[in-house]
């Protein structure tokens, strides 16, 4: 799409410009996530979720109709700013089920995000430029011929519209676990708790000191770890498609968008199976912290192997690439789900929406930087094919491993503070 918008003067510069389109969504979400979280604690999870899905229908459709680079950036930014969905959904997942099923509930949230992250690019690979790929079905003079990237966006918006309708049957959970009506008063002072840690809130006829989210170190330390790994995952996602489609003379795999889409589709299917049937058992045995540590350390050798796949030929290349992509993405979702569990158990229910909003703000900032940074580094790496230290794309995957190692280190004490129930980790 960046190529066809004619903003990049050279092929090597496409990654640079593509990164800013990806970053604009996260920047918009960074600016509004905490506000959406506070709103979800005040008016309920459902209204925020419904409005977020509605924004997907509108702005995702407009993105597919972009006629300029700046229109693409603007529509993605507005989608991020108006879509406060992810934070309230994590709170909702904890509240809608019994404590023993929390790991499964949050694994479904991260699975949905992970599958979307995989299936989205897969849809793009299969359905982009339909007039060229399916000339018998789509005429070059049709809407899809004039807007070659509209079809995958339309399909996503149609799916979002169906989900929006299904929200009619979605129950509200904000007050589901409240002991009495008096406890609802604590929500009124929620915004002040983010600023004033000493504020007193009258609850059940007595004074109760509410803990500031910023002074809740179990929450804040888990959010920081979450942000580091989210930064890594977003950078990896950005790099993977650029690397797989770049020419072998630049260290890539010379795959077509359809080939990349197929790899991502297989990975997306594996995520669903893994999170439904394997992750809850792994979490029960190892706990969220140990499972995250093991997943992080296993990611490092896999990423080191990626640049050497350029020397493989078919069918070995496709087999190895699919296996590596499946393992890498399932390990990444293991880490993210573990941090979800730690965050949501570090706060009471009346602070959960704001806590998840704060988490989304931090994560969105890191994910806004990640695509732009990854695009810049990728473009730079492709220009140093004969460098002495990790030439070409080897440098990109080396830097990804540095970030992964940093996240792994931060999962240990004294940095990561955990609740008593996780001390065995």
Automatic annotation (TrEMBL):
It is found in: Membrane. Pfam families: MFS_1. Residues 1-419 form the Major facilitator superfamily (MFS) profile domain. GO terms for cellular component: membrane. Keywords: Membrane, Transmembrane, Transmembrane helix, Transport. InterPro entries: MFS (IPR011701), MFS_dom (IPR020846), MFS_trans_sf (IPR036259). The lineage of its organism: Eukaryota, Viridiplantae, Streptophyta, Embryophyta, Tracheophyta. The chain crosses the membrane at residues 14-36, 48-71, 106-129, 149-170, 219-243, 263-282, 294-313, 319-342, 354-378, 398-419. It is a multi-pass membrane protein. The keyword Nucleotide-binding does not apply. This is Major facilitator superfamily (MFS) profile domain-containing protein.
